[in-house]
Design brief:
301 residues, Rossmann fold, 6-stranded parallel β-sheet, 4-stranded parallel β-sheet, 10 strands, EC 2.4.1.208, Glycosyltransferase_grp1, Glyco_trans_4-like_N
Length: 301
Amino acid sequence: MHINTYFGQSYRLLHKVKKQGKPIVYHAHSTKEDFQNSFIFSNAAAPLFSKWILHCYSHGDVVLTPTPYSKKLLQQAGLEQPIIPISNGIDLSFYKATAEMGASFRQKYGYKETDKVIMSVGLYIKRKGILDFVALAKAMPAYQFIWFGYLNLHQVPHEIREAVETKLPNLQFAGYVAPDELRNAYCGADLFFFPTYEETEGIVLLEALAMGQEILIRDIPIYEGDLVDGKHVYKGKTNDDFQRLINGILEGDLPSLKAAGQERIRQKDLRCIGSELRSAYETAIQLHKSDGGGMSVQGTK
């Protein structure tokens, strides 16, 4: 059984499957670190959240997590189960750009061909860097900024509500859109800007890379080694860095990294990920057998 969430229904299913003596693969998509700086009171609740998810994950014969970075965080938190990092992957056959996609995006959102458009994707939460995105829109009126994604504003702190309600002629909040419309945006924008402070992987970054976008991200530990600054993507740490790099990328003063970034993402095609998952399932079965069937649902191994 492959379990993907830590909610009550999944936990009840876990107990049922355990009693049946079946092996469990638990997918650890969340950590304490990526829960913080999200919803109202999330920081105060983070220690309890961490205890709960670790309790859930501890019932897996094998724990999957998207990256070596998230594996490290789980180990540091005290999880003792075997942890295998496997990317969530993306369907590269879907993420193929056409001129029509880009034109459709610009027409829908009112951009001219000459407009230089910076896009980002994420929930309305501080961790995603939304405050920096709005600050840069204010500081760079010559460029157009558009944010995709949505969250009920009653669930977020006042500073986030205030940012989302900011009225600027060069700033749009498009809300949630269907995958094909988001694909159009990846195709039609000039730069994908991902100022997130914490991720376990960041699927939207993989999507933007697959679409051959120019990419600017925050220089954070998860992307060390995997995405090289100045080779696959550009990286910055402060808004001053971002402003300088945005100018350099959009004005052509910095070389394009589109091709290298797109090539880098090929290894995360779902067809490649499928074989990794099969290997993980086989490992879970073997560990389950060697552990005597895993009939107990109490505590950790």
